[in-house]
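tool_log.txt
---
The assistant was asked to compare two proteins side by side. It first ran the structure predictor on the initial sequence, then on the second. Raw inputs and outputs are pasted verbatim so the downstream comparison step can read them without reformatting.
(1)
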Amino acid sequence: MRYFCTANGRIDREMLLETFIASRLGSGGRRTDVMRRVATLCVAVSVAVMSVALGVVNGFRSTVAEKIAGFAADMQITAFGNGNGYETTPVTFDSTWVRQLREVPGVGGVQRFAIKAGIVRGDEAIQGVVLRGLAPESDTAFLHRQLVEGRIPTYSDTVRNREAVISESLSRSMRLGLGDRFEVLFVGEETPRRDRLRVAGIYRSGMEEFDRLTVFGDLGVVQRLNGWTTEQIGGYEVLLARDAEAGPTARAITALIDGEEGEEDDGWALWGAETSLDDGQRLVAATVEERYPQIFDWLGMLSLNTTIVIVIMLAVAVVNMASGVLIGVLEQTRTIGILKALGMGNGALQRIFVFRSVGVTLRGLLWGNLAGLGLCLVQQYAGIVTLDPVNYMMATVPVRIDWGQIAALNVGTLGAVTLAMGLPAAIVARIAPEQSIRFQ
């Protein structure tokens, strides 16, 4: 093939010739067509499975993290020694320190909170709950998204409001509806206290473990039940800004709490530092991951399982494509011998089979993306596949498509398959023209 060796057009003509031959080799006999379709199907199935796995894991991670943060914020700053208990040592509100905290880059909001454990008593049943006191500045966007009936009450620092928002599961178990009053018994270190609250709204988050326990009410009511003054609170909840990165924000907050520079770390492990305010109070900061490690460990296991699935699916795609290329080489042995006799080099012949595999891979990527992303979109908007909320903390399989990950998945699959095709295509160099031309 020495007739296309002009200085300016050699590469273009060689590439054109190689791609043309590759397309013609791909339209051979019945066995060749069957192998091409099988290889395309394997790539499509692999890409579809990987896309669905990524979408589901991203959905679980984002949904669970969002809902837990909605119940307990991204970070809590409380008195030292409270741990995860419901009976907390009060913190005296310090407006100057809160202003400094709000100025930390990445902090989207700071709000007061307090909690109190109690027992709801009905005519036929009792249920343990945790009353979470909301301040006037509390962000209720999450609660509005989960609301199924009623409204979110408006709370103030001047008048106590005994309206509360309960979960749908508590409403069913205690037979409570909008406007109904219910009695809650609160047992503390001192004399037990009781109060009567009225149902203003009913929410459903799908996280049954949290829904069963959490009742949202007025911060002033919790302060009265704890015997605190209006300046005493359970602590501060820190909400991260929408586009804030966890690592830098964590280091900045840790530096403010410690009064010194935090260590270099990209994760949340820096959090958990202590500080002392001017009145001598010792505070400790804890992230949502530190307060609910078992949930985030479970999400980490999901990510590990997804990595294993991706590796297996890539291996399946590569093995099937390699088998297809090997069969193609054997079927086209006579053609390879003729092309070699005409002067085509081993490198050009190997590229022909690599181009052929690239074409099959691209078709598989197209169909795989259509199938995988289609399933993800159907589940995202229709919620066809359901879950047991008791075990999975949500009623349907959550899906979130990360288009950057999908693009990387496609590029990575195409690259891995293309690189792996070099080995089976190398068999072309071992084919001798004088023997292969007579090959039947």
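(2)
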Amino acid sequence: AMDIEGLGEALVNQLVDTGLVKDVADLYSLTAEQLAVLDVGRTKLDGSAVVLGETVARKLVASINESRHRPLARLLFGLGIRHVGGTVAELLAEAFGSVDALAAASEADIAAVSGVGPKIAESVRAFFSNPDNLEVIERLRAAGVEMAERRTEPTRPQTLAGLTFVLTGALERFTRDEAGAALKALGAKVSSSVSSKTSYVVAGSDAGSKLDKAIALGVPVIGEQELVEILQTGQPPATGGDR
């Protein structure tokens, strides 16, 4: 979630097994010296253990240091809050802007965020009501992990503000993440689920249940070419899209 290059599952298991890491905050106190001698679970031909080594260790520490400055949504995702994946984390980051504001929010305030709802809100509120979790957050803060969203002025006019798009199926010209980011740059919201409040569904090839639900709800459906035109002009389709 925090995009730490080189920190794969096998290495994480080693760090936990050796006691170097007991929770996520411990990652930020690791040194290259500690990591360099870490047994990676393999042996050389002479029977001696293979260790991580100084070069890899230095690169890993540098990657951990870089992750202190990830966007708030990545941090919220990385905290491991139940039901909070990448998409929900983005919604919460946009709505509250900081860990402190989210931690202070009531369950009702969290549930009121479009795309969140009561089940997720209950889980988020329970997470921030746990003293152990709050202690980890304070240790992350002390380690220099950024706890608030960096607000920047949009580079393009927010002509799609107030519109919600859902992307489904495979696109040819870009990934869904790239398309979603481009829509957000124009002020749109991008949701993972279709509802009556969805403005448009962008249907690529092999679109499945989301397309079916859009048709059932009467939500306008557009194709990839129409999406390209939206991103080029900054304007939504003049018609309701293809059904």
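---
observation on (2): The radius of gyration is 22 Å. The beta strands are 39-43, 49-51, 164-168, 189-191, 200-203, 221-222.
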